Each structure stands twice: as structure tokens, then as C-alpha cells.
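# nightly structure sweep
# worker-07 picked up a monomer target from the shared queue
# config: single-sequence mode, recycle default, output format = C-alpha cells
# input follows
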Amino acid sequence: MQPFRKSSFVKKGNDMLIKKIDTKHIVWFQNSNSYLIFEDSTTAIIKKLHAKQPISEIENWCCLKLEIPKNIAKKFVNDLVKLIQKQHQKPCTKVPLLAMRFVTPNTYNSSKHYLINEVSFLIEFETEFLESLIHPKFAHLEALKMKATEYHYQIFQNDEHIIFLVNGKHIGSWSCKDIHLFQGKFSMQITQHTHQKEAHEWLGVFHASAVGNDTNSLLFLGDSGNGKSTSLALLQANGFKCLADDFVPIDAKKQEVYSFPAAISIKKNSLKTLYPFYPKLKAASEYRFKRLQKTVRFLAPNNLDYTTHLPCKALVFIYYKQGIRLELKTISKVKAFEKLIPDAWISPIKENVALFLDWFLKSPCYQLHYSDAEKMIETVHKIFNDDL
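# output follows
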């Protein structure tokens, strides 16, 4: 295998950040906006490569430091160079079809008016299907028809693509196979407009549920089906405030959790647990999402002030399962980071990445397993009150 020359690794414009995490390091690569975790010795090699040290010198360092033969050191460095070069490449993502031609419909199947934070929205859906992708989780925000609106959203289809316009501006187009990308963009637009913040002012958006008291918030994270939304619903029925469900925005300036006005998604297997607290759920409409293979009902949040934003007290990786004993324990930063990143959108701006890493590293991380709702609620009180 032919060795790489020193100039092949770092090119003008490439950049990265490195942060210590437990006994390892997080390395962020700017071009791909990706994060990798490495051992100390590997991170040292990356730093040498980034400093443009000759490959032969790095290989010799590996032989001495790692006490490995020359041929193994060469292969290790060569493989690492290839890995890092890949991270320095900009990903081949599907570009929204900004240049595509489309015809704006003359009529729409439905028009919805929302009022959020005193900001008025008119959302027009060309078809019932397009309405079903958005409106059910925002139905509690529907307002009477207004004479004037600040934001006019138009959502329609052309040639098997979903087209999204805001005040006549083409925001993007997505294949019907990428519905989740369209929904994410819609949610981001709503977030920016309701809180009057531009894209660069957000640290990131997390696939989580967020609950607050008067002074702080907690993020509940975990795989789909682990009980994030159910736990949020139980907590809001017991005096806590629902800040956001599924889509949790955090700002860059103060790293605070901001309200997101969508309803809480309640899956079928959680209904029995929640009926005593929310009897109206029995008559609520059901929505079947084939792509996600789930049926949900929507529960309006108890938050009446969508301007709310609170510091984050801790990250809690939650897991509900019948019959298990409650267990709360601190988990390693490495494990927490590996769970957090895959379903998160983190700002690609270098200054925001540095803020995100600092925020994450100082945030306590817990793992909470439970089946008894009362004990879970008691434990959450203790986390908020530093009474663990």
C-alpha cells in the first residue's frame, strides 16, 4: 500500500475541534459536521497529521509509543489517514431542488391559522395527505381566521416532490421518500419564526422530550419506544411544564432549552397508563404513520407560554418497562455522547460546536429505568432539587 504524502491530509479550509471526554477525545470535523471518539494515542496521531508532520516521523512515533512493529504502524497510520480524509470531505447529500420548476396551486384543500407567541401563521395544504403530515400535532394552536398573517406557508406537490414556500420564498423540495426531512424543516421554520431567531442562533435540535419547573429543565432521551413522551405526559399531569416533545431546540447564546409548541405524541401502548390523567384521550383521533409503523394520539401540552426557555439541569436517558425496579445512575460521558449524537442536529458553525461540546461536558448525564410512575416522578423532583 502506497503511503500518503504529508500534503494529502490537511488542505486549506479543513478544520476540526478536539475535546477531552472521560479518558478519550471527541474530534469534530468541520466539512462533514461529524463527530468521532478516539483513544488518547490515536488523537495524538490526528494532531500530528493536522500539524502536517511527515508521515515517516508519525510512523516512527507509533512504533515507539505503541510498541508495535514498523509494518503495523504504517498500516495503522495509513488507515487513520484514509478515515480522517473521508471526514474532511463534504457529504454527498441530497440538495433541495431549489432550481426546479413548479406550479403553485390555484386552490388548496385546507387553510389553517395558528397563533404562537402572538405570531400569526397561515398554513395552506394542497391535499389531505399533506395536511396529515403536519396539522394533527399543531391542531391545538389553531386560531380563528385572521385579517393579516406574518407568515404564509404553502405546502403542495409537483412531480412527486413536496414543495415548501414561506412568504412566497422557496424553502425546499423533497421526494415523498424523504417526508421526515420536510417535517424537520417545517419544524425548524416554526421554531425560528415563533422565537424570532435565525438558523445560526441555534445550538442544535435534539430528538428528546423536555420538561421544566420554574427555573430549570430536563431532557429525556432514548430510542423510540423507550417512554420519553409517556414520561413527559405523566410529569405534566403532576405539576411540571411540557416544554417540547420529539423536537427540542437549544439556543447558542445561553444554551437554554426553548419551547416547541407541538402536541405530545402518545402511542397506543401508553394509553392505559395515561387514561386516568387524561380521560379525553379515549375520544381523541388516532393517526397511523405507516413509515414509522406506529399509531398515535396527540395530547396538547400544558404550556401556555411558548416564549419559555430554561437552562438544562441534566440529560436523562430514560427507559420504561413493566415490572422493572427503578434505577437511577450516572452514565459515562462517552456513552451519553454516543447515544445523543445520532438523532441530533448540531449547528455546523464552529463557534456553536465549541459551545455545544462545552455545554454537553458540563451537563450531568443519568440513566433512569422504571415501571412505577410515582417513583419516577419522585426521582425527577429529586434531580431538580439536587436531592439524589
